[in-house]
Structures are given as C-alpha cells and as structure tokens.
Amino acid sequence: MADKTTSRTGSGFGRMLIAVYGLFALAATGRSILQLIEYFQPGTPYYHQGLLAYILSAVAAVIYIVATVALARGDQTSVRVARVTIGTEMCGVLAVGLWSILDKAAFPDTTVWSTFGAGYGFVPLVLPMVGLWWLWHTAHLTESTTEPAS
Amino acid sequence: MLAPLTYTLVVLLSALALYAIYLTVRGRQIDNPMLYLGCAAEAAIVIQLIFGIATAGNADSHMSKALFIAYLVGLIFVLPVAGFWAVAERESRWGTGVLLVATLGLLVMVARLLQLWNGHG
C-alpha cells in the first residue's frame, strides 16, 4: 500500500496543501451543519430563498472532504477522484462566485464560495488552482521517474 | 470569556505562527521551542474551553451557546491533529508548513469566537 507512488500527492508540499483542504473541510462542514439546523427550525425567515445556498454549502463541504481524503491517499484511483473533485471545486467557486454577485437575492445566507470566497480571504478561489497544479506536478514527476510504459 | 486569557491565546498563536513561518522559510523541522510553544497554546485553548463553558451565560444574549461551545471544542483538536499530520513530514520544510496552516486557522477561529461572544454571530 504505502509505496512511493501512493504518497506522492500526500508528501512534501502536498502535506501542507492537505492541511489547508482539511481546514476548509472542517469550516465548510461546520457552516453547512449550522445552516441545515437553522433551516429545519420552524419560523426561519429565509425558509424558501435560503435553500439554494444551503445546498451549495453542503456540496462544498462534501467536495472539500473528498478532496482532502483523496489527496491524502494519493493512489491512482484517488488521484483521479481528486482531479474530478478539485476540478468541480474550481468550477463551483467561479460559478457560485459570479452568481452570488449577479443575483444577490439568491444568497441571503452566504456559502464558502460566495463572492469568490471573499469571506475566507479568497483562499477558496486560489486553493483549487494550487490543487490542480499540484496534481499536474506530481503526475508529471511520476511519469518521468517511475512509470515505464502503459 | 476572560479577556486576558483570550489575549494570551492570541499572543501565543501569533508567536507560533511567526515561528512556523521562520522555520518553513528556513526549511527546518519542528524543534523544541516550537513544541513548547505549541503545548503552551494548547494549554491556553483547554483553559479557554473550561472558562468559556463556565461563563457562556455572561455573553451577549444573541450568542448561540451551542455554536460557541462547538467552536471551543473544535479548537482543541486542531493542534494535535496538525502535529500528528506534520510529524510524518520530517524530510522537508512542509512539516512546519502544516503547523503554520493550523495556527492561522486557529487565529481565524479565535476571531470568530470573539465575534460570537460579542453577538455578531
């Protein structure tokens, strides 16, 4: 299990990157749980209009958790999973960021990705870029050093 | 929430963050001063948890007590988990980089804690 290729994405700089992902998994999950608790309380003022933001918060939380685990595992399948989740994360930040600016009414309560993650120091915007770069970088390393042919 | 305790915590975390930046930039591993600083910060977090729960009633009436205590409990786990995660990365600078990330995260969480306490949840 723990040969060189399995830990490629999880060692060196990747270890710090995973720490950031873990932190955001925690933050997004916390926010999502809080919003869901609020949502299911009777008499919530934004019972209808808040639903979209709450769903997006939950989706973001799941994406951060999956990306954290996939990067930490780092085997072939996990790298593929990480590529898809971090790619989705990139699209999500851009789409939700733009959407939340164009249609403020749709987001009475914020998500991690609202206004491109401004509430989190724009880290949510930069994080998937770094993540994708890191996946590309480690794949490149693996190809040139260990992979004979496929 | 006791103000001197919170200031102590913020000072300890800031010192830890600055030291982590220094070690990461120099490409050094976790050393004894960092360990002691980390332990001091963790001790302050535990004391904060106890005082926080004991005095939660004195906070702004808009504060959600459950959320406040969830933050206090969450704070406790960050440094041990980060330390565990960082220890496996001893060949490079990124072990201390992990602790830097964790410490910055903690500072943000303490800031949120203060906001909650003052009713800006």
Description:
The complex is a heterodimer of chains A (about 150) and B (about 120). By secondary structure, chain A is mostly helical. Chain A contains 4 helices and no strands. Chain A is elongated, with a radius of gyration of 17 Å. Chain B is an all-alpha fold. Chain B has helices at about 5-25, 30-55, 65-85, 95-115. Chains A and B meet through helix 1 of A and helix 3 and helix 4 of B.
Question: What can be said about this structure in brief?
Answer:
The complex is a heterodimer of chains A (150) and B (121). By secondary structure, chain A is an all-alpha fold. Chain A has four helices and no strands.
What brief labels describe this structure?
heterodimer, A: 150 residues, mainly alpha, 4 helices, elongated, disordered N terminus, B: 121 residues, 79% helix
- Unreliable stretches of chain B (pLDDT < 50, length at least 5) are none
One letter per element, helices H and strands E, the order of chain B comes to HHHH
**Which shape of chain B, going by the Cα principal axes?**
elongated
The major β-sheet of chain B equals:
none
Topology:
The complex is a heterodimer of chains A (150) and B (121).
Chain A: H1 13-39, H2 51-73, H3 76-102, H4 123-145
Chain B: H1 3-26, H2 32-55, H3 65-87, H4 94-117
Helix pairs in contact in B: 1-2, 1-4, 2-3, 3-4
